[in-house]
Amino acid sequence: MFARYGFQRAGMADIAREAGVSRPALYVWFENKAALFRALAEHLKDEALSGARAAWREDAGFAANLEATILAKDLTFFRLLHASPHGAELMAVDATVTATIAGALDTGFAAILTERAADLSDAGLVDLDAFGDAPAFGRTVALLASGVKHEVRDEATYLAGLRALCRLVAHATAPR
Questions:
Q1: pTM
Q2: Would 19 be classed as within a structural domain?
Q3: 47 is a domain residue
Q4: Number of domains, the chain
């Protein structure tokens, strides 16, 4: 409902009807529309981090794993924000809420990348010298992936840019 109508026009009655519950029942779970939006955003963040953590496959190469991990985190958000004419409005619903959740998502994602990079570095499968260390790798790649996501307007360009980024990072981290 938020994607279809935007935050301002989506009413609790509309949301309850779409969810198949009564409006009073919806208020039992959520104090107001902002609380419901926050819970939805938290759920999407948790799902994105869970997907990113699960995307890594031991039988895939580094660039492919990096791409799968980033896509697991970002592709749903990219599609949601670009499919709805209300994407910008939804990101600005409550700047504090969206900034806090987005910050937690970015921090959690950088931690996932840091953990993967440290494990691969310890195994001699990647060389992190170009980034300094595993935490710098995690922060940098998370920031670069975010830049690709926010700077393109269509999915094909996003996927191509992300694929190029992952190949570049894989090249920069190849053991010497």
A1: 0.84
A2: no
A3: yes
A4: 1
Containing structural domain, residue 124: 38-172
Q: Is residue 2 part of a domain?
A: no
Task: Please give the full DSSP string across the chain, using - where no structure is assigned.
Answer: -HHHHHHHH--HHHHHHHHTS-HHHHHHH-SSHHHHHHHHHHHHHHHHHHHHHH---TTS-HHHHHHHHHHHHHHHHHHHHHHSTTHHHHHTTTHHHHHHHHHHHHHHHHHHHHHHHHHHHHTTS---TTTSSHHHHHHHHHHHHHHHHHH-SSHHHHHHHHHHHHHHHHHHTS--
pLDDT values of the chain reduced to their tens digit, one per residue, 176 residues: 877 877 788 889 999 999 999 999 999 999 998 899 889 889 989 999 999 999 999 999 999 999 999 999 999 878 877 776 666 666 666 666 677 888 899 999 999 999 999 999 999 999 999 999 999 999 999 999 988 888 888 899 999 999 999 999 999 999 98
| CATH classification of the domain holding 160 | 1.10.357
